[in-house]
Amino acid sequence: MDFISSDTNIWFDFYSILRLDIPFRLPFRYIIYKEALREEVVSPPDLLSRLVSLGLEGVEITEEEFFYAEDLAENYVKLSGYDRIALAIAKVRKICLLTGDAALRKAAIKEGVEVFGTIRVLDMLHESGKINNDDYLYCLENLKKHPERRLPQEELERRIIATQRELKK
């Protein structure tokens, strides 16, 4: 089972469409710096306990990760401390980074870290048969209804159209 270093914003995407549990159907262990989990996932009140019960693991960072995160501050001023730590965990542990944050995604790519977000998680769930066409379409359409989640609308629309065509066959 692969580990994935997670940013917090992804979980708000899935919470907003009432599908918080579905990423946990994939064969990954999602980890996040325990301080970020405790300090950034404060609302809604039940979100933190639900994520932990589903399997999101809060982890401590190593000394190497701490210093790497500090070094990242020089080159990536738009990243928060917790963003830098999520990236440092992914880089040092040689695992993927899960985030929807544009600045963090760009930094991860520059640092040679594989990165994906909410839409890729949905694609993997769909491609692996963990969710069917109806569930996939539900997720895409409902994410599109939440522009505050800042997902690429054109990517959502492209997948919606393709899935609707598939359902009509």
Q: How would you sum up this structure, described in words?
A:
This protein is of the alpha/beta class and 169 residues long. It folds into two domains: 2-118, 5'-nuclease (Rossmann fold, 3-Layer(aba) Sandwich), CATH 3.40.50.1010; 119-168, no CATH class. It contains nine helices and five strands, in the order E-H-E-H-H-E-H-H-E-H-E-H-H-H. A five-stranded parallel β-sheet has the order 3-2-1-4-5. The longest helix is centred in the last third of the chain and has 16 residues, at 153-168. It is globular and about 55 Å long. The model has no long low-confidence stretch (mean pLDDT 93).
Level-2 CATH architecture of the largest domain: 3-Layer(aba) Sandwich
According to CATH, the fold-level topology of the largest domain is Rossmann fold
Count of distinct strands: 5
Identify the overall geometry.
Answer: globular
The CATH superfamily of the largest domain bears the name 5'-nuclease
Low-confidence runs = none
Question: Which H/E pattern describes the elements?
Answer: EHEHHEHHEHEHHH
Q: Which class do the helix and strand fractions yield? A: alpha/beta
How would you write the strand order of the largest sheet?
Answer: 3-2-1-4-5
Summarize the main sheet: 5 strands, parallel
Number of contiguous helices:
9
Counting structural domains, the number is 2
Mean pLDDT: 93
Approximately how much beta-strand content do the residues carry? 5-15%
CATH class of the largest domain: Alpha Beta
**What is the radius of gyration?**
16 Å
Helix content: 55-70%
> N- to C-terminal separation?
35 Å
